[in-house]
Design brief:
D-Maltodextrin-Binding Protein, domain 2
């Protein structure tokens, strides 16, 4: 029978990766330092590889050690999922979900989603964390959070993605801009314009880059917004144009008089938003139920209906 590391050995390796110190790792695992050291040495011998590079006054994980530590995090998270499913059952979706959300969608979608979720599962606790998409993928893969709400992850094979909606993306222009009186524009109308975007790590940057390439406009190289609100304010004071997703528009543009929203006839921009989680997670049924509920909620609220731009035209 092939060797398999024990649960405790994996915990020790992960703790060592996080602390880079045998004493602190042992303290985190509530064992003595000799116990942890012996188990790490045994794990290296059993695997036939060097996991820890020991130098005077410091330690670090070897490249293979880092890869095994990352895999160990995923294994430990899956074991935690199994315990959660067994102890809490499926009726309350496991009692706790650590949910990551992208900041361009979560804060505007969750206020309409969470009340329905709470009515159906009043005992369920939701811990929400906002992060950029790249970080969310890392945290879901590593088990720091259970699932996330955003666009489909880059490494699709490592995750399950359950689509919730197609979100339309609008072009925002200053109220006195030459295009502000039009409800729709074409790509050619944007030639020479300056496009503002969020900082690196946001997937919306890709939409802005694509628009700049297709239209002959330019991306501002001296400004990157920290939030959609910041972008809206920059557009309002005529620093450039920018893109705004549908749920942000629905919640934040009702009283916005200084930015007009347009659609681009020959560039029907949209993005797919949904829940995603580790493909190895034992809680897939819980997270699929979140997606089902979200789609049902959107159905009751009239999905696919265009956002009314009458107040911003």
């Amino acid at each position: 029978m092939p060797f398999r590391p024990t649960h405790r050995q994996l915990e020790y390796l992960v703790a060592l990766d996080e602390t880079r110190h045998f004493g602190r790792a042992a303290q985190a695992c509530h064992v003595s330092q000799p116990t942890l050291s012996v188990q790490i040495s045994l794990l290296e011998k059993q695997l036939g590889v060097v996991l820890v590079e020991r130098t005077p006054g410091a330690i670090s994980l070897s490249s293979v050690g880092q890869e095994i530590a990352a895999a160990a995090r995923s294994v430990l998270a899956t074991l935690d999922d199994i315990v959660t499913v067994a102890s809490a059952g499926r009726d309350n979706l496991g009692s706790l979900i650590r949910l990551g959300v992208v900041p361009t969608f979560g804060p505007y979608f969750l206020p309409v989603f969470l009340p329905d979720l709470h009515r159906l599962y009043p005992a369920l606790r939701i811990h929400v964390r906002e992060e950029r998409p790249t970080l969310l993928e890392e945290q879901v893969r590593g088990g720091e959070i259970d699932c996330a709400l955003g666009q489909q992850p880059r490494q699709a094979e490592a995750f399950v993605f359950d689509l919730v909606c197609h979100e339309q993306i609008f072009l925002g222009v200053p109220a006195n801009h030459r295009l502000a009186s039009a409800a729709k524009v074409r790509l050619a109308d944007l030639r020479g314009e300056t496009l503002l975007t969020l900082g690196r790590g946001h997937r919306l940057v890709e939409n802005v880059r694509e628009l700049a390439t297709l239209s002959g406009s330019t991306m501002a190289d001296d400004y990157e917004g920290t939030s959609l609100d910041a972008l809206r304010q920059m557009v309002a004071i005529e620093m450039g144009l920018s893109l705004f997703p549908e749920f942000y528009v629905r919640t934040e543009f009702a009283k916005e008089a200084n930015v007009k929203l347009l659609t681009i006839d020959d560039w029907p921009a949209s993005r797919e938003m949904g829940f995603f989680w580790r493909s190895s997670s034992a809680r897939s049924a819980h997270f699929r139920q979140l997606a089902v509920l979200a789609r049902t909620m959107l159905g009751k609220r009239g999905p696919g209906q265009p956002v009314s731009l009458s107040d911003n035209a």
